[in-house]
Amino acid sequence: MKRFLLKIFVWFFGILLIGLFLMNCKKYQFYGNGEARLKIEYYTKNATKYNTLIFGSSRMYRHINPTLLDSATSHKIKAYNLASGGTFFSESLYQFHQTPIDKNIKYVIFELQDLMPFENNAYSEKILYYHDIPTTSFEVKYHLKNKDWNSLFLTLTNFVSNIFYFKKLNRQELYHTEFLTFNNGYFPLEKDYTLFQSVRTQRAAYLKDTTQLTQRMEQKVMKKKMNVVWKNEIKSLEKECQDRGIKLILVSSLFTQPIDFSFLKKDSTTKILDFTSPKKFKEFYTYKNVHDNGHLNMRGSKIFTQKFADRLNNVIESEK
Amino acid sequence: MLFNSIAFAIFLPIVFVLYWFVLKNKKRQQNFLLLGASFYFYACWDWRFLFLLIFSIVLDYFSGIQIEKSKSKKMATFWLTLSIAINLGFLGFFKYYNFFVDSFADLIGGFGFAVHPWTLKIILPIGISFYTFHGLSYIIDVYKKKISAEKNFIEYALFVSYFPLLVAGPIERATHLLPQVKKARIFNYEQAANGVRQILWGLFKKMVIADNCAPIVNEIFGNADQEPASRLVIGVVLFAFQIYGDFSGYSDIALGVSRLFGMELLKNFAFPYFSRDIAEFWRRWHISLSSWFRDYLYFPLGGSRGGMWMKIRNTFIIFLVSGFWHGANWTFIIWGGLNALFFLPLLIRDKNRNNLETVAMGKLIPTFRDVVNILFTFTIVCFAWIFFRAENLSAAISYIKNIFDSSILQFPKPLPKKEFFLIVFMLCVEWINRTHDHGLEIHRWKPWLRRVLYIVVLFLVLHYSNFGNHEFIYFQF
Fold first, then answer.
1. For A165, nearest residue in chain B (alpha carbons)
2. What does the domain layout of chain B look like in residue ranges?
3. Residue ranges of chain B with pLDDT lower than 50?
4. Which domain holds residue A254?
5. Disulfide-capable partner of A58 in A85, A207, B253, B362 (CB 3.0 to 4.6 Å)?
6. CATH code, domain with A260
7. Which residues of A are less than 8 Å from B467 in CB distance?
């Protein structure tokens, strides 16, 4: 029996070591998110052109047009949009840590979210790749604090799966790369409509029931209090940016639940741009400005980028 | 719970450790643990059907005792009939109700009467065809006095619901498995190590071969009207390997897992695609089902004792019933009928037991004649698979029609190179080890060479596996 268990252990340990090595190979760090990988590769090659980076989900990717943002800020901002579809908080953090941020970068615009994996990501390779040791450790602490055992199990499973997921060696290139250069990483949903089934499905769901958007506008919004682990992660992100001389701008996106930021110190240099209030941003809850129930269309994103630039101009002004 | 799921990867080591460490040398508790684990394994799909499984176990357990207790043959026959009727009644209701109702409506409709059949949305309880056949074999054996009725309920329940074989076989016999359940088990290193190798080979066949072929097969069968004939041929060849990888892979995992608990299950596959005629193919494909039908249907019908006509009639009955066992669809019945037709020339010429030995025994390279025979057998098997895979009869016929088209000469684009490479690798490994139980049971190789092969297979599993919920095809039967 001992011999049997010892052999099983030796084999398991051997594969574990190979898996850990592969997991830490730079080449395979973004195997589950081709979009993010290509964007980061593009940014790395053209890093000197930009002084601002945008991280986050499709609500940043589809809503902020860096080319418009640049002109609306009189080219004080030269942004590249590194956000990608279906990305949530841990993934954005991982992306931030793995991106070789150039010394030119003055601003990092980072979308804030709760630690909620999307259903359709949860059982796919999309969720595996960013479960390295630091991200897993953060998620474990967060779920432990919330006593969310199901999510804890999912996180640990994803970590182990990432180690043993040798398919990462076989990563495939995306056949569509237009989003890399189109307006510096911004790509409106309309342009993806013919390419991706998920975009068509969401659009169809919206057209079937357009009242959801107005219902959302009338809903009472409560600021969500995040737990201490999440707050500490934001503080360490803030510190990391400060150490590099980067100004961190945290964004609460349209169509999301507001987050309570009172934990940030009053003397903090980090700025918060909150777009969660449906009452303040009524124009984005109208048929002509949205593509589906959670995203703006090209027209909406143009208006949104202008509003975003106005806020950003205030931030730039306050720095003087 | 699927064998190729993370849940099973956690479940198996827990049961293994409890079985060999906590309950070491305590046979009763070990059986109790395996029974509890089996019920949990089954309940992971749908706990409601656990009651049906338990009912089936209780029914056959009491029927067995009553048959043995019966003082007259008449009484024993009554209990046997009752048990068979209830077992087949449940199987018929859950699996065949809608088929019979629809077929009846179609038949009446053919005479010009409009009938609106009262069909039900029935969910097929997973594994019902398998555990019903376990129970049937037991009570028939008790009736025939091949074995005595089992008095220990836990041991009997474990025989029927033992988790490695519960949902997709192999279909066990009480004469084979019950004595192992009753015997104390001692950990055997060689047996357990061989079990792990068999599990690895099963995972390779399922996760690498079957799951990689599946999307291409689905695409080709789904667009059969638009695909060139050469792609249709590729579709059916890949399906042949998909179903082989899927089902024999499941069987290998089941046998390997059972070996970890010190119990041997019946062999279900013996490299069927190396068969030189259709009779040999059926001695090597789904062996536990073929032998079940032989013992409990073919022999009671008279087997080959009543002359050529009886032999032919009984062979057709066996194949048609076997087809129907696979599912409530005319495609399965035609599939069974076609195999019987292929069998016929061998039967008439009394050559159905010609190839009893493994092909090219003691040689690495087969003779030219063997190669031709293997290819011919594979071709006719593939032809029948078209009916097995098609959604309905008209789709199957249209698929075959489209194959006989001038586009057969077109180069098939895209050519699934990766899948063919993996299939060739599997065939090479199986060819080398064709006299053994599974592809990774190697005796003559040097230890380092064996380890290299294990590493390659492990690497291929981790590298080419399609993760996600890929259920096994045979779960639906």
1. B462
2. 6-187, 190-276+355-476
3. 469
4. 2-318
5. A85
6. 3.40.50.1110
7. 125, 161, 165, 167
